[in-house]
Backbone:
């Protein structure tokens, strides 16, 4: 019965491989859950866009395409940095891994900044749904509907991203104190999976919100 | 090389305390032991069940007279909403998965705990917080939309606390997701040596299928409730047709969750019944693979049929026809299970102990509930019985006749394992019979009421329906006695019941090989499965 | 020492792979943004979504390493996609056929 205590091994597992594979699987299951969470939003968007194509296209043209592209590229860069960070940790290069995680963090913050400025502009132009909403034109109601979905969809994405940033900060600390290393990279792998998934959501959100309906 | 930690661990094991040995409050509130978390869930759901049962009793009392003398229409609306919300999300969905599942999954697969014990505890806290938020909505005035929250009534016209109630359900939804995630990861990755997929207990197959639904359906409900709250707060139409929204979109998303959710509320029950039928006829379950795959088939097909709730709501006729045909398909795996249980009984050495009484009751009631479901899946008949008491009777046959009966059966079967004590057999049998009689008397008249045209959700009704309503209320009071009895004798047995020993039923399975109650880490040595899990000796 | 060198080599090659994929993904973003300026009678929408799905595929297979995963993770990645499809297809069946009347 007496087992050798491996550092970082939880008591319900037999070895680190089992532990890593299980938490990896857990994250994939969680990702499939998230697929359906955002799936409901995409369905709502599709149905309403199908009903009011003109209003939705009009509204989409009020989003800033350049800022959208910049944000997308920033997120892709953060995905790149995350992958480099994981590869570096597996190959015993803790310093590069730490640096790459920092890069991920920075790119994520740039994305949030760009999105924040988009929000601010929308608020300035009275495009935030609710009492302050003002839009002149026959499609005003549908434009407001678009912006409601825009804020809900990007808002939930930003929330996921913010949680991801917190996770990455924790990972950086763990790398710093040598709790994550080439033999024990499972947690960073799981964090990377989550981060990539957040990137995927944006990869779908960007064309859906900014591009469909033409500029 | 022995270090200090190891010595302490070995000493802990040799002391052989059970998982119940520690008694401090902190040892319960911060536990990550799956068995204790299962018990925490048990206490919590009994609490919510009691509140919801009181609401049901008030409704049945009110319906004794055609004029609805006890409560006003508004109060009645709040009562059935409360009953529905609490029973569905705070009793039925966590009942077998979170109580018996939490307790038994690691024991049945020979693991020391679930894959993610801390997430498991978190899910209980989320459940409690969600429940408290829902109760808060009740205390500040209640909600009158019905458990379905149909828009635009819920998003625009209702003057009650819809957003708070939605928040409570939203939070408890994450508890469901985490539980499902935990079970799936555990069943995939933590099986003891020798447990191949086809040596897995049928209870685990059914919990796996349930978890699939929990994980893939619940998020859609979560996002739907968010959209509902946003529409209500900002007054922008996503669902309200007056503002250009689409009310059917709400129903699509709602039933994408809620139809599979009714399988969350019966699949675990089917798993329990498979175990009980096998243990008490002392035979291998007939057609093991069919029963296992039927669980998975129900989990998948359950997602393809949601439109049958919307036949009269204005969806496309082509869509309705498609959903109707798909709904018939779900009957196939369900029927396979019923046939296999019945065939297992054939030439078995049957013992009619309390759990088996419940199991046999389940098979009959589930068959009745399932068959009437086919009526509702048929386009033409559904137009006649839609939103009548026929629907109420149908789903109560599945949920109360099915799931609650199975839950009671499972609770009695594994009670000796959970507490180490036997319950009094005579009172157990008596309660099972009272429950069966009370249930049928309550809900069978409702089939007739619905067929005759009494609509659901009204606090008053025409005089000609009174006879059936009186019968139903009388049945409900008998049913109430049936529920109170186990509550009393089970609590009594914790202290005064006979010691059970490891395997009082002489049943097969890893959980019966360890002590009753089990030690904290379940097994001293991880067991190995060397044969079929239901390999009972041949009956002479 | 030798082992460490080998590790550095492996690291260099995967960094190179990720950088190439990143350029591809950035290119795809620009392509889809360009597509939004042209009118192809509805086909531009198809093109934009196709580009998005290709990008998602690249991220899933290479960055999330689905190519080198155990079967179980495939199962669950696939389940998310399949159920997403169920939600969309069955719900949209209603919306797309609702106006068909005899």
Residues:
């Amino acid at each position: 019965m007496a087992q050798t205590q491996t550092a970082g091994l939880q008591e319900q597992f037999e070895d680190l491989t089992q532990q890593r594979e299980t938490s990896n699987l857990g994250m994939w299951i969680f990702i499939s859950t998230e697929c359906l969470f955002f799936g409901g939003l995409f369905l709502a968007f599709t149905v309403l866009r199908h009903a009011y194509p003109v209003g939705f296209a009009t509204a989409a043209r009020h989003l800033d395409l350049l800022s959208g592209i910049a944000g997308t590229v920033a997120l892709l860069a953060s995905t790149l940095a995350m992958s480099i960070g994981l590869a570096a940790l597996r190959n015993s290069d803790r310093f590069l891994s730490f640096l790459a995680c920092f890069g991920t963090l920075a790119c994520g913050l740039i994305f949030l900044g760009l999105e924040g400025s988009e929000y601010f502009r929308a608020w300035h132009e009275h495009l935030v749904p609710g009492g302050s909403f003002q839009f002149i034109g026959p499609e005003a109601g549908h434009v407001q509907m678009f912006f409601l979905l825009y804020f809900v969809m990007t808002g939930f994405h930003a929330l996921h991203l913010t949680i991801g940033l917190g996770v990455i900060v924790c990972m950086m600390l763990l790398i710093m104190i040598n709790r994550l290393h080439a033999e024990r990279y499972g947690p960073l792998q799981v964090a990377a999976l989550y981060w990539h998934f957040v990137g995927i959501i944006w990869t779908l959100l960007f064309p859906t919100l900014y591009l469909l309906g033409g500029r | 090389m022995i270090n200090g930690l190891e010595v302490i661990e070995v000493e802990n094991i040799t002391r052989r305390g059970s998982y119940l040995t520690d008694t401090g409050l902190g040892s319960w509130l911060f536990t990550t032991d799956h068995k204790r978390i299962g018990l925490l869930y048990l206490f919590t759901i009994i609490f919510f069940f009691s509140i919801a049962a009181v609401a049901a009793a008030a409704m049945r009392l009110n319906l004794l007279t055609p004029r609805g003398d006890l409560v006003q229409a508004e109060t009645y609306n709040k009562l059935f909403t409360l009953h529905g919300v609490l029973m569905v999300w705070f009793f039925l969905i966590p009942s077998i998965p979170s109580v018996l599942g939490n307790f038994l999954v690691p024991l049945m697969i020979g693991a020391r705990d679930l894959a993610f014990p801390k997430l498991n505890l978190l899910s209980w806290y989320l459940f409690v917080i969600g429940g408290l938020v829902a109760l808060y909505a009740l205390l500040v005035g209640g909600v009158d939309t019905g458990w379905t929250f149909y828009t635009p009534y819920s998003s625009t016209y209702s003057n009650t606390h819809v957003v708070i109630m939605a928040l409570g359900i939203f939070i408890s939804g994450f508890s469901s997701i985490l539980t499902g995630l935990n079970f799936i990861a555990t069943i995939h990755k933590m099986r003891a040596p020798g447990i191949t997929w086809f040596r897995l207990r049928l209870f685990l197959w059914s919990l796996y299928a349930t978890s699939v639904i929990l994980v893939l359906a619940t998020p859609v409900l979560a996002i739907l409730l968010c959209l509902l709250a946003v529409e209500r707060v900002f007054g922008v139409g996503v669902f309200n047709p007056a503002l250009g929204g689409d009310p059917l979109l709400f129903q699509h998303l709602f039933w994408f969750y809620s139809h599979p959710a009714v399988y969350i509320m019966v699949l675990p029950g089917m798993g329990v019944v498979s175990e009980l039928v096998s243990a008490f006829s002392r035979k291998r379950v007939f057609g093991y693979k069919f029963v296992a795959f039927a669980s998975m088939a129900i989990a998948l097909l359950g997602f393809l049929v949601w439109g049958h709730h919307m036949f009269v709501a204005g969806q496309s006729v082509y869509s309705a026809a498609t959903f109707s045909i798909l709904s018939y398909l779900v009957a196939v795996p369900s029927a396979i299970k019923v046939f296999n249980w019945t065939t297992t009984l054939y030439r078995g050495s049957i013992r009619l102990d309390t759990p088996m009484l419940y199991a046999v009751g389940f098979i009959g009631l589930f068959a009745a509930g399932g068959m009437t479901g086919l009526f509702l899946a048929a386009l033409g008949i559904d137009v006649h019985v839609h939103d009548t008491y026929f629907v109420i009777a149908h789903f109560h046959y599945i949920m109360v006749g099915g799931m609650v009966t199975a839950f009671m059966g499972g609770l009695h079967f594994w009670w000796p394992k959970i507490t180490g004590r036997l319950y009094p057999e005579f009172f157990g049998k008596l309660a099972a019979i009272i429950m069966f009689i009370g249930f049928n008397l309550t809900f069978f008249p409702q089939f007739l009421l619905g067929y005759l045209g009494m609509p659901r959700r009204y606090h008053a009704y025409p005089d000609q329906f009174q006879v059936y309503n009186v019968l139903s209320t009388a049945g409900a009071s008998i049913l109430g006695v049936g529920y109170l009895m186990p509550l009393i004798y089970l609590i009594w047995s914790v202290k005064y019941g006979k010691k059970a020993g490891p395997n009082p039923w002489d049943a097969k399975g890893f959980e019966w090989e360890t002590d009753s109650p089990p030690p904290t880490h379940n097994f001293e040595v991880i067991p190995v499965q060397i044969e079929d899990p239901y390999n009972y000796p041949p009956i002479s | 020492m030798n082992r460490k060198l080998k590790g550095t080599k492996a690291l260099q090659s995967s960094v190179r792979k990720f950088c190439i994929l990143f350029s591809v993904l950035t290119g795809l973003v620009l392509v889809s943004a360009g597509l939004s300026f042209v009118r192809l009678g509805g086909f531009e929408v198809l093109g934009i979504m196709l580009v998005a799905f290709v990008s998602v595929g690249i991220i899933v297979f290479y960055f999330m390493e689905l190519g080198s995963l155990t079967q179980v993770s495939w199962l669950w990645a696939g389940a998310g996609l399949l159920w997403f499809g169920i939600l969309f297809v069955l719900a949209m069946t209603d919306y797309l056929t609702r106006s068909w009347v005899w």
Q: What stands out?
A: The radius of gyration of chain A is 21 Å. The mean pLDDT of chain A is 92.
